[in-house]
C-alpha cells in the first residue's frame, strides 16, 4: 500500500514522541512492503512563532492532501501565562479538526495487565476494563460563540440536530461492533443542549434494537468510571465532557502516556495521543512514546492493515512485560528507559 502521511509534531514533547512514532511506522512499512512518504508541517506554538498562525494555510494543504495526519501535541505555557495573547497554540488543534471536518474522536481506554497496579484505583476494579469514548469534536463550547471582558465572559454550548445525529450514529455503530452497550453521557437535568442530545438518541434507539442504551449524567459517569470502569463498553458524549472524561480514563490505564486516539469525519483522519505537550518534560527524554505509537497502530487499522496494527500492539505489550518503560510506569527499583530507548526497543521487536 502507498500512504502519504502529514506529520505535525507540534510543541513540547511532541517532536520527541513523534520521532518514535515515525520510526515504528517505518519499521512496519519495511516489514510489510508498504511505501510511506511523510510531509512535515507546523502547528501550535511553533507555527505562531514562525508564521503568526497556529494552523497556517500551508499546514492545512499538507493535511488535506495526505491520506492521514499523524499529530503529536500542542501547547506552550508562554501563551497560558499571557492573558493578552490573541492566538493560542490549542487553536491550531481546533482549527485542524474544524477545517478537516473531524467530528468523531475515538478514544479507547484500556488496561494493560502488567500495569494494573499503576492505576490509583484498586487492581481488581481496573483489570479487564476496556471501553471506548466517542467524543464529539467540532461543536459545543469549544466552537460556540465566546465573549470576554473584564467583568463577564461566556462560552456557548451550541449543537444542531445534524451534528448530534451524526455523532450518535458513530456511537451506535461502534457499539454494534463491540459488546452492544452504549452509554449516552450528558447533563440533561440542567443543560438544554444535553436535552436535545437525549431526545435525538431516544429517537434513534429503534434503529438499533440490538444495542442496549443507557443515559447517564456526566457527573455520575465520572464517578462510575472510577467506581466501576468495567460497566462501560462504548460511551458517546459532547466535546467538553469527552475531553475531561478521557483524561480521567488515564487513571484507569495508569498513565496519560498510554492513550491514543483517532479523529475521523469528512476528510483526512488524524491520529494523535490524548495527552498534551507536557512542556516541562521537553528535551528530557522522559516522555512516554506509547500513546503516539499506539496512534500509529490505530492509523494502520483505519486502513484495514490489521496485521500491521496487531504487530505494533504485540510489540507494545512485550515492551511493558519486559519492563521497558518510561519513568512514570516503571516498577519500583527498576531502571527507567528513555523515550528514545522505548521506541528503539519496539522498532527492534518489529524488525525481528
Ligand atoms: N494531542 C492532544 C493535544 O495536543 N492536546 C492539547 C489540547 O489542547 N487539547 C484540547 C483538546 O483536545 O480539545
From TrEMBL:
<keyword id="KW-0520">NAD</keyword>
<feature type="binding site">
    <location>
        <position position="97"/>
    </location>
    <ligand>
        <name>substrate</name>
    </ligand>
</feature>
<keyword id="KW-0100">Branched-chain amino acid biosynthesis</keyword>
<keyword id="KW-0963">Cytoplasm</keyword>
<feature type="binding site">
    <location>
        <position position="219"/>
    </location>
    <ligand>
        <name>substrate</name>
    </ligand>
</feature>
<dbReference type="InterPro" id="IPR024084">
    <property type="entry name" value="IsoPropMal-DH-like_dom"/>
</dbReference>
<protein>
    <recommendedName>
        <fullName>3-isopropylmalate dehydrogenase</fullName>
        <ecNumber>1.1.1.85</ecNumber>
    </recommendedName>
</protein>
<keyword id="KW-0464">Manganese</keyword>
<comment type="subunit">
    <text>Homodimer.</text>
</comment>
<dbReference type="Pfam" id="PF00180">
    <property type="entry name" value="Iso_dh"/>
</dbReference>
<feature type="site" description="Important for catalysis">
    <location>
        <position position="142"/>
    </location>
</feature>
<feature type="binding site">
    <location>
        <position position="243"/>
    </location>
    <ligand>
        <name>Mg(2+)</name>
    </ligand>
</feature>
<keyword id="KW-0460">Magnesium</keyword>
<comment type="pathway">
    <text>Amino-acid biosynthesis; L-leucine biosynthesis; L-leucine from 3-methyl-2-oxobutanoate: step 3/4.</text>
</comment>
<feature type="domain" description="Isopropylmalate dehydrogenase-like">
    <location>
        <begin position="4"/>
        <end position="346"/>
    </location>
</feature>
<keyword id="KW-0560">Oxidoreductase</keyword>
<keyword id="KW-0432">Leucine biosynthesis</keyword>
<feature type="site" description="Important for catalysis">
    <location>
        <position position="187"/>
    </location>
</feature>
<keyword id="KW-0479">Metal-binding</keyword>
<dbReference type="InterPro" id="IPR019818">
    <property type="entry name" value="IsoCit/isopropylmalate_DH_CS"/>
</dbReference>
<keyword id="KW-0028">Amino-acid biosynthesis</keyword>
<feature type="binding site">
    <location>
        <position position="107"/>
    </location>
    <ligand>
        <name>substrate</name>
    </ligand>
</feature>
<dbReference type="InterPro" id="IPR004429">
    <property type="entry name" value="Isopropylmalate_DH"/>
</dbReference>
<comment type="similarity">
    <text>Belongs to the isocitrate and isopropylmalate dehydrogenases family. LeuB type 1 subfamily.</text>
</comment>
<feature type="binding site">
    <location>
        <position position="135"/>
    </location>
    <ligand>
        <name>substrate</name>
    </ligand>
</feature>
<feature type="binding site">
    <location>
        <position position="247"/>
    </location>
    <ligand>
        <name>Mg(2+)</name>
    </ligand>
</feature>
<comment type="function">
    <text>Catalyzes the oxidation of 3-carboxy-2-hydroxy-4-methylpentanoate (3-isopropylmalate) to 3-carboxy-4-methyl-2-oxopentanoate. The product decarboxylates to 4-methyl-2 oxopentanoate.</text>
</comment>
<dbReference type="GO" id="GO:0003862">
    <property type="term" value="F:3-isopropylmalate dehydrogenase activity"/>
</dbReference>
<feature type="binding site">
    <location>
        <position position="219"/>
    </location>
    <ligand>
        <name>Mg(2+)</name>
    </ligand>
</feature>
